[in-house]
Request: fold
Amino acid sequence: MAERLALIDYGSGNLRSVAKALERAAIDANLTIAVEVTNNAAIIATADRIVLPGVGAFGHCAAALRSLPGVWDVLATRVQTEAKPFLGICVGMQLMATRGLEHGEHKGLDCIAGDVVLLAPGDTALKVPHMGWNTLACVQSHTILNGLPDKSMAYFVHSFVYTPVDKNDVYLTTDYSQTITAMIARDTMIGTQFHPEKSQGFGLAFLQNFLKWKP
Amino acid sequence: MLATRIIPCLDVKDGRVVKGVNFVDLVDAGDPVAQAKIYDAAGADELTFLDITASSDNRNILFDVVSKTAEQCFMPLTVGGGVRDADDVRALLQAGADKVSINTAAVLNPDVIRVLAEQFGSQCIVVAIDAKKIATSGWQIFTHGGRTATGIDAVAFARQATALGAGEILLTSMDKDGAKTGYDIALTRAVSDAVRVPVIASGGVGTLDDLVAGVRDGHASAVLAASIFHYGNYSIAEAKQHMAANGIKVRL
Reply:
């Protein structure tokens, strides 16, 4: 039976781009995966993989996710207790943190302890948001990065940055006159600050690796 | 280090590309999706669709173009032209746009920028500013495709737009647009230095040196061009190599 991937729809941004990129990555990897765009806790609870996309403000996204009946709890259970492969993208990654400090203090899913704080590049002439293509530096290896060249470039657009308590959870960083967490991971959870669905060849290869991943 | 973005722009009217790449082997040069795929394969860092359709009746054609592009091009896509309110933004984002640029509606009622940024996030709200140099001093904003003078100072408006939540400024010099004599560097620099968000320089590119000047002298974060790519004068790769040779970090 084909795997089922739940792509969580909580009214945030570029859902269609993410769905289409996942479908393309599945085809390229010769995988039969049904991508289900959903806001239904029951569907998420039975999916084999979960992707939480997200653009916009942390507090707004957290509130939107909480407003979906049962979804917040099922995410926590499914991802942390039952260890289903999970990918959070951009704000979807930031929501894995303990707290978001964008326009006030907001609670995250607390999957990987840490705070989401405003970018503060050392060079104050640098623009915020951090928008565009930046180089990824691999700080430790991870199965999901297998076969992807080090120093690949990925597309970012964000003004806040995830600072995990345990630096051992950081796998990729990027430099913007400060070190930005570009990918975090623990157990079956992955989070990327960059947008794989917008990162052309590299992004599709990354998504293929996530779809093939059997942690 | 963040790479400077090179952004080709496609003008779309009634679902067809008005100015397109003259590739002899392209079966349908007016198909925006086919053109988008060419730029995607060529390594463009983002793509912008500017809808210049006069009638709002044909709006659904644009949504269809955006949606087909988003299915096939996995790169950032900005769509502008005729965007007035949250319904327009939502429809474009749902079709697959990543950013939406808003021009006349933002000038007529700047508070719409705040409303849209709060709802969709600053990262996807681009404010497009069309400016002309005025005799006394500075630059003034024009709307309705450059036909209507507003009396609003371009630099002051850029500051106001970003304070209200614009995540990026798309800055076009109406004096330079189509002239192929280079960006209005003084304008680009004045706006870039006045705001914290990225500024995309637009209007006037004739040579690859113009792209370099937009970044080096104009302090732009990204450079947009239409004609030099459309008519095949230069490829995206040539543009990037030229910028790299001039010490500008690009994604090769």
Remarks:
- The interface with chain B takes residues 13-17, 20-21, 24, 55-57, 60, 126-135, 153, 155-159, 175-176, 195, 197-200, 203-204 of chain A (CB under 8 Å).
- The mean pLDDT of chain A is 94.
- The CA atoms of residues 25 and 204 of chain A lie 6 Å apart.
- The longest strand of chain A covers residues 179-186.
